[in-house]
Specification:
The chain is mainly beta. It has one domain: Jelly Rolls. Helices cover 0% and strands 57% of the residues. The chain is globular. The chain starts with 10 loop residues before the first strand and ends with a strand.
């Protein structure tokens, strides 16, 4: 299966998961797994949340930011991947001066 983000509309999600500002995302969902290509503008964040019944992979494509991973603050940049297992919590914050672009996959457990 090919998921073509070039043909999807962009959704603007204000204060996603309780975060700051907004996230722009192109999302695919088949009822079980969510796959998205998204952008956080400088100062925007995804709020801290715990994965219950799912896990998440976040692949940083460009930009830089800070990941909060089970309470630890970790700088992130292009080429890195965050894995948040079921039962764990994380948040992503764009602490840079450019957009933070990423891909994420959230498969149901």
């Amino acid at each position: 299966m090919i998921i073509d983000f070039n043909t999807m509309p962009t959704t603007v999600l204000e204060n996603f998961k309780g975060g700051e500002k907004h996230m722009e995302a192109k999302m695919y969902w088949d009822g079980t797994t969510r796959v998205m290509k998204a952008r956080l503008i400088p100062g925007a964040s995804i709020g801290l949340h715990t994965h219950e019944g799912s896990c998440e992979f976040i692949f940083i494509l460009s930009g830089e930011g800070t990941l909060i991973d089970d309470g630890s603050s970790i700088p992130v940049h292009a080429g890195q991947c965050n894995y948040c297992p079921e039962g764990h919590s994380h948040s992503l914050i764009n602490t840079g001066t450019e957009p933070l672009d990423f891909m994420a996959a959230v498969p149901k457990q």
